[in-house]
Amino acid sequence: MMRALILGGIADASLLAAEIARAGIDAVYSYGGRTRVPADQPLPTRIGGFGGVSGLADYIRRETITHVIDATHPFAAEMSRNAVEACANTGTPLIALERAPWTRRPGDNWIEVGDVAAAAAALPEAPAHVFLAIGRQHIAPFAAKPRHAYTLRFVDPPEAPLPFTADVLVSRGPFTLDGELDMMRKRGIDWVVARNSGGDGAHAKIDAARRLGLPVIMISRPTLPKRLRVESVAEVMQWLGHGDCLGA
């Protein structure tokens, strides 16, 4: 009997959960716990980590999980690596639902870097207005350049003091091009720092930066172990043997 585990994170994970529920597949949706008020799901939900590879493997065995779908954020590298190892240890089929990365378009002014520390180093020495669109877990390296006026945007208000002075926007996407243009103009943004998350929901800030002629420091995705990877909910449903049920 099939019992699936969705490791959630990206917006498409919610679309997948809806399709799995519609198909009548027994499944659990797991949140990492980064967001305090996660979106409601049509499946039983668990929140929090598993306790590394061994904890995830124990969960898979205990809950008789037969299929694992890694639909975490492309930068949730530790969880994705743990999933690969835990599924290998338990003999559980694994598939990754991973949206394609963004690619440079005409008019883009990107500075591509390998990690967050390199992104902080790439900022200019002269004071500037910087929009950090990278999530609250990754802002610490920018404390090395406190001269900049930073704008941050989080899903939840920060619980702990920030490592530098910043203007914090609390908002949940998806965001529109007009909205991003308005935000950047009002705040006089000179630089944008973003992770190459891919997908449509977060691309408006990249379009806005192009429209305004702003440089974007683009952080490349981490390298992950080889695994079966698809880019659409339909492909995951086919893998589960329910491709004919999609959208029914």
Description:
By secondary structure, this protein is an alpha/beta fold. It has two domains: 3-100 and 224-245, NAD(P)-binding Rossmann-like Domain (Rossmann fold, 3-Layer(aba) Sandwich); 109-219, Rossmann fold, CATH 3.40.50. It has seven helices and twelve strands. The strands form two sheets. Strands 3-2-1-4-5-12 form a six-stranded parallel beta sheet, with helices on both faces. Strand 4, helix 3 and strand 5 (94-97) form a beta-alpha-beta unit. It is elongated and about 60 Å long. The protein starts with a strand and ends in a 9-residue tail after the last helix. 33% of the residues are buried.
Q: State the helix count.
A: 7
What is the CATH C-level name of the largest domain? Alpha Beta
Report low-confidence residues grouped into runs of 5 or more.
none
- Rounded mean pLDDT score: 92
Can you summarize the main beta sheet?
6 strands, parallel
- Compute the separation of the termini in Å: 22 Å
The named CATH superfamily of the largest domain: NAD(P)-binding Rossmann-like Domain
Shape descriptor reads elongated
Q: What would the CATH topology of the largest domain be?
A: Rossmann fold
Helix content: 25-40%
**Rg measurement, Å:** 19 Å
Structural class of the secondary elements? alpha/beta
Strand order of the largest sheet: 3-2-1-4-5-12
CATH architecture of the largest domain: 3-Layer(aba) Sandwich
